[in-house]
Write a structure and sequence with these properties.
By secondary structure, this protein is of the alpha/beta class. The protein has helices at 3-14, 48-54, 60-74, 78-100, 109-117, 127-134, 150-158, 169-173, 177-220, 238-282, 291-309, 334-347, 404-424, 432-443, 450-463, 474-483, 488-494, 499-513; strands at residues 147-149, 225-226, 232-233, 353-356, 359-362, 366-373, 378-381, 394-400. The chain has a domain at 177-287. It has 18 helices and eight strands. The strands form three sheets. It has a four-stranded mixed beta sheet, sandwiched between helices. It has a two-stranded antiparallel ribbon with strand order 2-3. The longest helix is centred in the middle third of the chain and has 45 residues, at 238-282.
Length: 517
């Protein structure tokens, strides 16, 4: 997807940003649902895919799922189909909850597909839609970004590799010894990751210095022959003498970089030792998570999905032909997400930066791709409150959406707001990014949810102001220019695109001269 295509796509969508983002199942709003009496009737299951999804599953929800699915698709009256689709929503979620409790690497492809894509029966999709879904790479190998489909996310939580998302103070008070130790492992792992980032950063810095030093020494060792004196190498020229000073500076920088590496390596080794010791205290069951925790995580993801879909969106959880995407550009696959997030990072260069021990580290949040029809991604949490400096936040992005880019930008804008607000703490209405925006919001007597307005402005900043199209209020533009700056090369370009940009550019120069930036 080119930058121009992304810009055009979002510009058209942003004009309708205050309207309903999805049509949803509007006809379901006024339907009154009656509880079914007795167990669901048995019907003949003819789809091989559906048979494999429900194979080995027991309980009332299996029969209900099959019966209600059949009636929701095949009932002769529209009202009956609508009624059963609404009933099917609750039944499906109960069925899926039981399904995820048993998830493991040996689960069938059909069960995994059901969890990941919300597909219960492939026959509910048109042939071209089936082909589209099947063309999504199931595994994309090692990724630089922590993207997870629902089945992958539940699995790593169940293995204890990631802390559960549920924030429940009451439950926290009832934690057992192994839970307490697991929390310590999580915090120490975050510290370990920060030390690893510092080690990598220092190593990269050392490599750059070494390359520069190697070039300088090559120049220093190059001597023209003195032809009139038996080709004896010439004395150092003025440039070489100047290089001696620079080489001395580079050697000092090398020593500092190496000391930083030694410090980071020592902290990394200590963290590894502590993590191993803590895991040893957890016993053989350290990698196991009880079913309640998995259920709680599943319910957290359900809440994420509700937030992504919104109150007026399409909450029907099963993928059927009526709602299925028409092309890969309407699916938040990992491959699509990687391209988009790189573009966002190019424009909002500090979006994932966090400072720890005077070292700026890039900490990309976990991004959970949830099986839902939606237009907005959300930030579930900006970081772990117990490990603010080094822990990853959590974003949720709907799998099926009109614009993958727009969905991600909603989540990133939400992240930007929450990180800034947490950083300012109780002074969030006075300090930093949120303080400046609150001053603008209240000063102009704007109504509505301040965070939602901020996110909308953030999207305009990233997509339209980036191209020099002045759509934001001048105060908001100045706030973003200062607190969410574009890269310097883009600022250099924009200063020639209008008076307001040039004025902001000059303010940058004045702040730099006064050392007040």
């Amino acid at each position: 997807m080119s930058n121009g295509q992304m810009d055009n796509e979002l510009i058209s969508l942003l004009d309708d940003v205050d309207k309903d983002l999805t049509e949803g199942l509007g006809e379901l709003k006024d339907v009154k649902i009656k509880e079914e009496e007795g167990p669901a009737p048995k019907i003949q299951v003819t789809s091989d895919f559906l048979k494999k999804v429900i194979s080995g599953e027991t309980g009332e929800y299996v029969d209900k799922l099959v019966y209600q699915l059949d009636r929701a698709i095949n009932a002769s009256l529209k009202d009956d189909r609508t009624l059963f689709r609404q009933k099917l929503i609750a039944t499906y979620w109960n069925f899926l909850q039981n399904l995820v409790l048993k998830i493991n690497i040996n689960s069938s492809a059909e069960k995994m597909t059901c969890i990941r894509y919300g597909i219960v029966d492939m026959n509910l999709l048109q042939p071209d839609q089936q082909k589209l879904i099947k063309s999504i790479p199931w595994s994309t190998g090692q990724q630089e970004y922590p993207f997870y489909y629902l089945d992958e996310w539940i699995r790593i939580v169940s293995q204890g590799r990631v802390k559960a998302s549920l924030i429940d103070e009451v439950a926290a008070k009832k934690k057992g010894d192994s839970d307490v130790i697991r929390d310590k492992v999580d915090r120490k792992t975050d510290t370990r990751n920060a030390s690893l980032n510092m080690l990598k950063s220092s190593a990269d810095e050392r490599t750059l210095i070494e390359k520069s030093l190697a070039g300088e020494i090559n120049i220093l060792l190059s001597h023209s022959p003195l032809l009139q004196y038996d080709n004896i190498p010439d004395i150092y020229n003025p440039q070489q003498k100047e290089l001696m000073t620079r080489i001395a500076d580079d050697l000092r920088k090398l020593k500092n970089a190496d000391q930083s590496m030694m410090s980071a390596l020592r902290e990394l080794q200590n963290a590894d030792a502590e993590i191993n010791e803590l895991k040893g205290r957890m016993g053989d069951g350290s990698s196991q998570v009880d079913s309640k925790m998995i259920t709680d995580e599943f319910n957290s993801v359900r809440q994420m999905i509700k937030m992504c879909v919104g109150p007026r969106g399409n909450h029907f959880p099963i993928l059927i032909s009526d709602y299925a995407p028409h092309g890969m550009d309407e699916i938040n696959t990992k491959d699509n997400m990687i391209k988009i997030i790189r573009e966002v990072e190019k424009r909002d260069v500090g979006v994932f930066d966090r400072e720890f021990k005077q070292q700026v580290n890039k900490i990309v949040p976990y991004i959970i791709i949830v099986p839902a029809y939606g237009e907005k991604g959300i930030c579930w949490e900006p970081f772990d409150v117990a490990q603010r400096a080094t822990s990853r936040g959590r974003l949720a992005i709907p799998l099926y959406t009109k614009s993958p880019l727009l969905a991600l930008l909603y989540a990133v804008g939400d992240l930007r707001w929450q990180v800034a607000k947490e950083k300012a703490a109780y002074r969030w209405m006075e300090e930093g990014l949120t303080g400046k925006y609150y001053e603008y919001f209240s000063g102009n007597k704007l109504k509505g949810n301040i965070k939602e307005e901020f996110v909308k402005d953030y999207i305009i900043w990233i997509m339209q102001e980036w191209g020099g199209t002045q759509k934001l209020h001048r105060t908001v533009r100045e706030i973003f220019w200062r607190h969410l700056p574009f890269p310097q090369a883009k600022k250099d370009e924009l200063r020639n695109r209008g008076f307001f940009y040039d004025d902001l550019y000059k303010k940058d120069m004045r702040r730099a001269q006064s050392d007040g930036y």
